[in-house]
Amino acid sequence: MTDIEERHREKKARIKAAKDRLYGQKTREKGLVIVHTGPGKGKSTAAWGLVVRTLGHGRRVGIVQFVKGRRETGERRFLERFPELVEIRVMGHGFTWETQDRARDIEAARAALAEARRMLTDPELHLVVLDELNIVLRYDYLPIAEVLAVLEAKRPDLHVVITGRNAPPELLEAADLVTEMRLVKHPFREGVKAQPGIEY
Amino acid sequence: MTDIEERHREKKARIKAAKDRLYGQKTREKGLVIVHTGPGKGKSTAAWGLVVRTLGHGRRVGIVQFVKGRRETGERRFLERFPELVEIRVMGHGFTWETQDRARDIEAARAALAEARRMLTDPELHLVVLDELNIVLRYDYLPIAEVLAVLEAKRPDLHVVITGRNAPPELLEAADLVTEMRLVKHPFREGVKAQPGIEY
Q1: Do residues B138 and B147 lie in contact, with contact meaning Cβ atoms separated by under 8 Å?
Q2: CATH classification of B28-190 is 3.40.50.300, yes or no?
Q3: What is the rounded CA–CA span in Å between residue A80 and residue A98?
Q4: Alpha-carbon gap: B162 to the closest alpha carbon of chain A (Å)
Q5: Chain B partners of A49 at a C-beta cutoff of 8 Å?
Q6: Do β-strands A60-65 and B86-90 pair in parallel, antiparallel, or remain unpaired?
Q7: So what's the pLDDT on residue B97?
Q8: Regarding predicted confidence, which is higher, B122 or A12?
């Protein structure tokens, strides 16, 4: 082993020891408020990954989709096969930029929030996904204060994941874990269309 | 409707028309090389989301895990329930920072790459996940040129997702779609330990 390799290994060992000390003190279990935001891909997709992870531990999941896409997605089709493990509620219709009916959109957003409120206190659920809630907040379909109150009232050991671009600062402040997905390179720019299994 | 609302709506309509023109031209289907990198969470998790999405479309998936974690993960436990749809290969053991046996690690990485090479030309698969391949590249367990050659030789319509921090620039260059996960806020900093369904 060269000197450089030896010094590298010693440094690694020191870092590992420091981490062990640090992580050894991490004893609190806590239901987390997780936010996936940013302009990149993977916000909802990573939420479906957490769903799968949770199902693998034999725990139940609730999903509220605040924005209904135009086509049926692969993840919904797959997760609907496990109705005893996954409860999915999809907002009934599209959005103002398509429907031109803001009042109806607000009504649908309120109904979705009511579902979220119920799921977040459900003793059977381990994880709740509030998919594209940030979009609803962005369009002022729901007051942020009311959403924060719903999150505040959640069962303390339940995890919740909130997805969508432009998460408001108040939500980031209230969250335990925030990841921003940053777009580095995207094939739409090169004439490749949306494909099953990737975009939907 | 106020003037501001009307102007906002008109602007939205113009953006939508421009998008329709743009997306109407996107006609190419192409198997993508997707990279999830960066220091934030959600890199592997978003890959599991793409797996679920693909399964929902009734297509098959291959997974090679280049780094075996210390515990059994929820996602692996769940996906192993579908052996006819998901083929999972896990590198046999830990890594030098634990095992202090670099030669053995390199051998395991080579075996994992051989699995990847086979899967990437398998006519039955729609998506292949090379989980934590970036870590292996980072530690120089595999030459980047060889990995790029394996990707180059993949079936043209097959999608591949590569995860892990510190993706090398050559890989980013070769990729079609790159997302960087950025850590904005993390609960470990506040004494919360790793929890099932979230971290594993």
Answers
A1: no
A2: yes
A3: 26
A4: 13
A5: 42, 44-49, 52, 75
A6: unpaired
A7: 59
A8: B122
